[in-house]
Amino acid sequence: MGFRRFVTASLISATGSAMAPLALAYSVIEQGGGAGALGVVLATNTVPTVVFLLMGGVLADRMSRSRLLFLGNLLAAAAQGALAVVVGTGQATTTSIAVCGFVSGTAMAFTVPATQGAVAQIVPAEQLQQANTLLRLPVNAVKVLGPAVGGVVVAVSGPAWALAWDALSFAVAALLLLGLRLDAPVAVAGVLTDLREGWAGFWSRTWLWTYTAAGTVLVAAWLAGFQLLGPVVAAERYAGARDWGLVQGAFAAGLLAGTVVCLRWRPHRLLVVAVVAGAPLAAPLLAMGAGLPLPWVLLATLLAGAGLDVAVVTWTTAFQQHVPQGELGRMSAFNNVGERLAIPLGYLLTALAAGLWDDRTVLVACAGLVVVAVVLNLCVRDLYRINATRK
Questions:
Q1: Nearest partner of 50 among 132, 110, 131, judged by Cα
Q2: Considering only CA atoms, which of 368, 85, 343 is closest in space to residue 224?
Q3: What is the chain's alpha carbon radius of gyration, rounded to the nearest angstrom?
Q4: Which residues contact 17 (CB under 8 A, 6 or more apart)?
Q5: Residue where a domain terminates, one of 152, 178, 204
Q6: What is the C-alpha separation between 342 and 368, in angstroms, rounded?
């Protein structure tokens, strides 16, 4: 019953989150902002998530995770609701949109560390892979349909209505999550003591910090190559927005395919599979960098999406099974800080490389970084002892 409630909350929230990025972009455009204004808005959404993640991790190990998820989703609902009002009434400015984004990013910092711990509290250890897969299945399906539906809503009714739905979806999810009534995981000491002990626990698990370090490089290379340079190369080498839309669709379909694979396949060496499954992310970068025809790019992107979802499911399962309940929040926070820092790192590296090489060469270099990160991570001996828990 508790897991069904959690899945329902995730699905409802995902329907709003799938439409929100498009609505946010057009909110900035409608009030006269350009790329610079949109960059400011996106930065104010990302920065507080990184800044407050560690505090969110500490709280996730100190208080009821269902209450923390309730408060985080409620705060996000308030932020998106306020944004919908200012956009709908024509009072939106870059500053007001950025302030709402700051609040929304802060809310995410407190919900992300609590989520994995909540799932591990609800579901027995031997059923965690199936649970993580079932959580991702509807969310990935929404990722396929959500942007298209959001585009129609924004085109017909304006961005305010899409933002209002996002706010409502967060509010409904908050109420569902409050009903879980999960107990606080452990008795706690002071905040600073919790942080010090959390860092010691993170550093003592070689498999955890090496996976985080490799993941930071891999995510930075992927974002720089696919998200930033991909549309540029699509405009130069392929048919621009139309073909890039097909590539994005192939990636979403790959995510869904990876989820289906995880429903049937339950590997024993969870962490090894998680690392290896990240390698296909290099494929579309190489395909675009080499100027291969569009069908090959689509196939490579499909494989990348499938690999990424397998990696996410197996990594999450390994993490939940091999980190004690009382440390899940802090360990998740340290891991997520690395991945969040990959966003500005990837864009900075691309900006520096763009002055030295052409875009297609940078794409190949990003693919190389992905492969190197995977190979080096596979050299960590501690990786091979993190296996699936069976009955």
A1: 110
A2: 343
A3: 20
A4: 146, 166, 169
A5: 178
A6: 16
Whole-Å CA distances, 188 to 52, 59, 193, 233: 19, 10, 9, 52
Domain count, the chain: 2
Q: What is the pTM of this model?
A: 0.85
- What are 88-138's pLDDT values in tens digits? 888 888 888 889 989 998 999 999 888 888 888 898 888 889 888 988 887
> 277 with 351, same domain?
yes
Locate tokens 């057009």: which residue?
A: 26
213 with 302, same domain: the answer is yes
CA distance 231 to 222: 13
Enclosing domain of residue 84: 2-178
Contacts of 135 (CB under 8 A, 6+ apart): 6, 7, 10, 119
Q: Which residue has the higher pLDDT, 96 or 233?
A: 96
N- to C-terminal Cα separation, the chain: 21
Residues 252 and 379 in one domain: yes
Q: Does residue 168 sit in helix, strand or coil? A: helix
Q: Where do we find the tokens 């009382």?
A: 326
**Token pair listed for 200:** 């010691």
Instruction: Check: CB of residue 150 under 8 Å from CB of residue 22.
Output: yes
Q: Over pLDDT 90: what percentage of the chain?
A: 37
The verdict on 216 and 358 lying in the same domain is yes
CATH of the domain at 244: 1.20.1250.20
| Torsional sign, CA 118, 123, 128, 133 | negative
Report the candidate in 362, 103, 128, 93 with the shortest Cα–Cα distance to residue 223: 362
